[in-house]
Amino acid sequence: MDAGCTAIPGAFNALCARAIARAGFKACYISGAATSVCAGVPDVGLLTLEHFARTIREAADAARDEHGRPLPILADADTGFGEAEMVRRTVIEYARAGAAGLHLEDQKFPKRCGHLDGKELVPADHMAEKIQWAVKAANDLDAEDRRRSGTGVPPVRSAFLICARTDARGVEGFDAAIARAKLYIEAGADMIFPEGLATEEEFAKFASSLRASVPSSLRPYLLANMTEFGKTPMIPLSRFGEMGYSCVIYPVSLLRIAMGAVTRALEQLKKDGSVEALLPQMQTRKELYDLIGYTPGVPWEFHA
Predict the structure, then answer these.
(1) How many CA atoms, within 13 angstroms, populate the side-chain half-sphere of residue 271?
(2) Distance CA 250, CA 87 (A)
(3) Is the CATH code 3.30.460.10 the one for domain 6-259?
(4) pTM of the model
(5) How does DSSP assign the chain, residue by residue?
(6) Catalytic residue positions?
(7) Which has the least CB within 10 A, 122, 179, 202, 280?
(8) Pairing mode of beta strands 6-9, 28-30
(9) 270 three-class SS
(10) Tens digit of each residue's pLDDT, the chain (304 residues)
(11) Residue 260 φ/ψ, nearest 5 degrees
């Protein structure tokens, strides 16, 4: 993420993650909203840590770049599945599952989508403590990696990124979002995710305010959320780069596209009693097999 602004599409399953890698994207995102609705429940923190870790592991196993290397995965960790001890466990489980980083948010449980009204925040110092625990867990994993590499045991992970999301803009106002971001940076966050900003000008002001007030030694990466039908207008990736953002996630875009197609296909099947008219819209058997790297009659090689 040191080279320009990176687009990070959201994968709602392993096959989607593989398609993201095949399309040439340099990273993949696992969304809490997409993971939740794929399980048939709303995005209010109902799923377990184990459910999220399984989704991450499947995506990490499936998504490889053109050189066969695992695609970096940034994963949504909601509010950390609990307090400090659970935040530590979340970092460890996500790293073991194959994530390259996660983000934590400062909402009260039960949380809700960042682009909905009615959110409540935990005290800022409470969130800062969670970040400190997350950073310590990541540092401990790094130390364990170094110890294991000296004994020939493969490392669990490389440097793990801790991103702090603040939902303060829609609850306490823009200035509070800046103040919380500064506190989270002091707590050790590598990246800041300002959720629910309402204009391009707010994104620019948020980035410039942090640049002006945070020492360069602490200056974090910045993440923008480009979700549809929310409070944020459609802003091009290039413009986010100009404003100083390191990456842009597209958390539910592919799920919305897929489910739109599914809904229309079901309507046509119900009407016609046949899917023949839908064949031109389908991925062919050959295209599917090519995506997963499978040749009938030839043993399939799993990439460990």
Answers:
(1) 9
(2) 24
(3) no
(4) 0.92
(5) --SSPEEEEBPSSHHHHHHHHHTT-S-EEE-HHHHHHHTTS-TTT-S-HHHHHHHHHHHHHH-B-TTSPBPPEEEE-TT-SSSHHHHHHHHHHHHHHT-SEEEEE-BPSSP--TTSS---B--HHHHHHHHHHHHHHHHHHHHHHHHHHTTTPPPS-S--EEEEEE-GGGTT-HHHHHHHHHHHHHTT-SEEEETT--SHHHHHHHHHHHHHHS-TTTPPEEEEE--SSSSSPP--HHHHHHHT-SEEEE-SHHHHHHHHHHHHHHHHHHHHS--GGGGGGSPPHHHHHHHHT--TTSPPPP--
(6) 29, 43, 76, 78, 103, 105, 113, 165, 195, 225
(7) 280
(8) unpaired
(9) helix
(10) 545 899 999 999 999 999 999 999 999 999 999 999 999 999 988 999 999 999 999 999 999 988 888 999 999 999 999 999 999 999 999 999 999 999 999 998 877 776 667 789 999 999 999 999 999 999 999 888 878 777 555 554 448 999 999 999 999 999 999 999 999 999 999 999 999 999 999 999 999 999 998 888 788 999 999 999 988 999 999 999 999 999 999 999 999 999 999 999 999 999 999 999 999 999 999 999 999 999 999 998 876 5
(11) -60, -45
How many residues belong to the chain? 304
Two structure tokens written together for 48? 């377990």
List the domain boundaries for the chain.
6-259
Rounded to whole angstroms, the Cα distance separating 210 from 219 reads: 8
Token look-up 């064949």 returns 279
